[in-house]
Write a structure and sequence with these properties.
Blueprint: E1 2-7, H1 14-25, E2 28-31, H2 32-41, H3 45-56, H4 62-74, E3 81-85, H5 91-103, E4 110-115, H6 118-132, H7 140-163, E5 167-171, H8 176-194
Parallel strand pairs: 1-3, 1-4, 2-3, 4-5
Helix pairs in contact: 1-8, 2-3, 4-5, 6-7
The structure holds adenosine monophosphate.
Length: 195
């Protein structure tokens, strides 16, 4: 299985690239942000629990997020593999992911980290807010808070997988197709190694 983490700050293009990767490599795509927004939209008990965190751009507590993710990962049919976007967002989540995969006889194959600087992120998300309808997208202070949380808690996850020789940084600024081409190149290398 190809088990890939698509990594990067909010607004770095993970959603756009995830769709292209999923279509090309037929991976199960899991976005924890999308899962939470789905719960919110349907006004479920979980949606009500996480609403404030999402509105303020704060991380949802690990006990909620990890439980949701673990259930999802366990439901994978173990075919081509999965593409995670928005998870893990801290070291505790990375440990939990490694643990559940080990129980399944699997592991993370690769983390692809999209590199985009703060000012570009703010510009992109404010622009996205015109169509996304996300309350966390249209307030510059919240966008900067999300970026700071990424730098403080999430970025160390990249180092965690770097130590395992599994992190690949890719410049996330530029043409969407060119970025996708670089990502595909890393995935092809991985497939060759696995064959
Ligand atoms: P995203 O769509 O990935 O930008 O996520 C939107 C929001 O969902 C985040 O700002 C958090 O409030 C929440 N969220 C998504 N994934 C996670 C995660 N792995 N851990 C904690 N909170 C998360």
């Amino acid at each position: 299985m190809l088990n890939i983490i698509l990594f990067g700050p909010p607004g770095s293009g993970k959603g756009t690239q995830a769709e292209k990767i999923r279509n090309k490599y037929k991976l199960d795509h899991i976005s924890t942000g999308d899962l939470f927004r789905h719960e919110l939209k349907n006004n479920t008990a979980l949606g009500k629990k996480v609403k404030n965190y999402l509105d303020l751009g704060q991380l949802v507590p690990d006990e909620i997020t990890i439980k949701m993710l673990v259930n999802k990962v366990k439901s994978f049919d173990k075919s081509n593999g999965f593409l995670l976007d928005g998870f893990p967002r801290n070291i505790a989540q990375a440990n939990a992911l490694d643990e559940v995969l080990a129980e399944m006889g699997e592991e993370v194959s690769l983390l692809i980290a999209l590199d985009v600087d703060e000012e570009e992120i703010v510009k992109r998300i404010l622009n996205r807010s015109k169509t996304s309808g996300r309350s966390d997208d249209n307030d510059e202070a919240i966008i900067r808070e999300r970026y700071n949380i990424y730098m403080d808690y999430t970025k160390p996850v990249c180092k965690y997988y770097l130590k395992k020789n599994k992190s690949k940084p890719i410049n996330g600024i530029g043409d969407i197709e060119e970025i996708f081409c670089k990502i595909s190149c890393e995935i092809e290398k991985l497939k060759e190694e696995k064959e």
